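We treat protein structure as text, and this decision shapes the records that our systems exchange. Below, we set out a record of this kind in full and without editing:

***
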Amino acid sequence: MRDLEKARALILNRSTRLKELSKTTGIPYQTLKYYSSEPSKLDDAKASRVNLLAKIYDEKEATH
């Protein structure tokens, strides 16, 4: 799975708490909410943000 797909899966996962994710990543809550409502906008997101979200996705998958 590519980083963009992982980031999208993390954002769209109903169990992901966006406020908690914002605190963990430093990505503003409103930005995460925007990605959640418009997942295609992740295509235009900074690579560093996508990579960070993908890393968190991997960490969550490793604990499940």
